[in-house]
């Protein structure tokens, strides 16, 4: 399953990596590249949307659908 979420607040490559690491820590995530240019992350896997949004929020960024 592929899910795309909006992630606001990324301004550099380190920010993207932080978001990717946060998403990768969620059980069920297979891959989760983040893109500051489009302010989004595309998640592959069976993780629950609520868990994904919480992980990004906990990392200090604003996540929404």
From TrEMBL:
Q: Which residues form a coiled coil?
A: none
Q: What PROSITE patterns does the database record attribute to this sequence?
A: HMA_2
Query: SUPFAM superfamilies attached here?
Result: HMA, heavy metal-associated domain (SSF55008)
Q: Which residues form the HMA domain?
A: 1-64
The record's listing under Pfam families reads: HMA
Identify a single GO molecular function assigned to this protein. metal ion binding
Q: What InterPro entries does the annotation carry?
A: HMA_dom (IPR006121), HMA_dom_sf (IPR036163)
Query: What superkingdom does the record give?
Result: Archaea
This chain's protein is named Copper chaperone
What is the scientific name of the source organism? Halobellus clavatus
Query: Which lineage do the record's taxonomy fields give for this organism?
Result: Archaea, Methanobacteriati, Methanobacteriota, Stenosarchaea group, Halobacteria
